[in-house]
Amino acid sequence: MRVVLIGRPGSGKTTLFNALGGARPKTPHAPGEEGAVVSVEIPDPRLEWLRDLHSPRKYTPARIEFGDLPGLPRGEARGKAELLAEIRNADGLLLVVRAFRDPSYPYQDPEPGPLAEARAVREELLFSDYAILHGRVERLEGSLKKPTKTREQDERELAFLRRLLHAVEEEGKDLREVPMSKEEALLVRSFAFASQKPVQVVVNAEEGRGPDDPEVAALLAAFPGALHLHALLEEEISRLPEADRAPFLRDFGIAEPARARLIRTVYSTVGLRSFFTTGEDEVRAWTIRAGESAVEAAGKVHTDLARTFIRAEVTAYEDLRAAGSWREAKARGKLRLEGKEYVVLDGDIVHIRAGGS
């Protein structure tokens, strides 16, 4: 699963990428250049508590990949088509918009401000989807003027794509807002539309410009779930030795770096969830997609466990934490057996019972 950082040149996108990846040198990019990628652990206090409970020989958090792409320029520019193609190939998007002043990085948009910038980037992605849809609709209309072996299938596709085109052109909707059947979702998967990607918006504000700043507040209201942070401060924190971080955070009155909250939020926004396996050998977080079943979760651990699955022994993390120990959780009846179709929830502690185990 790869989430790419996108935004206008000068939005602080690469600074935030460096903060996400830890102590890394700044890596500015130009359109057409390949961006950097970093694999990041998901900060999870639940997993840390389980580690302290079991004192295992191995401790393995979940991970997610972030990619840093060049800034998305306004209007026509060299390498923009390639950049949009990279965006379409991502699993999710982290849109960084600026709320700071820096003469070294002039605003590209005619109406500077975080809300206008976020809307402008969204419109660029929507227009790229419109161009793909329009081109495909025109080709289908042309092919249907003559008999073809796939006429019935092409007619269904054309009707569906016209509906998408109307949603984009007339209603200004992102394609992820358009209801689709399973068959329709499968049909559009190959197009990899940019506006179908899950998006997490982040406003990168200068120091002293908080969420109650009028311009920042306007963006946070327009994009529910958007986060506010100061990327330069987060980068400075990420470069500190581990022993120096706690005193630094106390001095700034910060409970935890915004980086940790951002990573967890992105993980959830792109539809990922964690379940845990525990024991003396290893305490580990496993990544699944929201809505996946117990047998699918078993397959993440090992394909043989999915093949020979009998049932799953499940305990909610919150129940174990409240009980304080496995013995007490069992006494309270918090360990339950679930079948193949059980939908694994975020934070479930799962032990797979399989044939031969």
Could you explain the architecture of this structure?
The chain has 357 residues and is α/β, with parallel strands linked by helices. The protein has a domain at 291-354: Roll (Ubiquitin-like (UB roll)). Helix content is 43%, strand content 19%. The chain is built from 14 helices and 12 strands. It has helices spanning 13-21, 45-54, 80-89, 114-143, 151-169, 182-189, 214-222, 231-239, 242-252, 258-269, 294-301, 303-307, 317-323, 326-331; strands at residues 2-6, 37-41, 58-60, 63-68, 92-99, 199-205, 227-229, 272-277, 282-289, 309-316, 336-338, 348-354. The strands form 3 sheets. It has a 6-stranded mixed β-sheet with strand order 2-4-1-5-6-7, sandwiched between helices. Strands 3-9-8 form a 3-stranded mixed β-sheet, with helices on both faces. The chain is flat and about 70 Å long. The two termini are 31 Å apart. The model has no long low-confidence stretch (mean pLDDT 91).
CATH class categorisation of the domain at 291-354: Alpha Beta
Spatially, the strands of the biggest sheet line up as 2-4-1-5-6-7
Strand content: 15-25%
Separation of termini? Answer: 31 Å
Compute the CA-based radius of gyration: 23 Å
CATH architecture of the domain at 291-354: Roll
Order of helices and strands: EHEHEEHEHHHEHEHHHEEHHEHHEE
Mean pLDDT: 91
Stretches where pLDDT falls below 50 for ≥5 residues? none
How would you classify the helix and strand content by structural class? alpha/beta
What is the general shape?
flat
Going by CATH, the homologous superfamily of the domain at 291-354 would be Beta-grasp domain
CATH topology of the domain at 291-354: Ubiquitin-like (UB roll)
Number of strands: 12
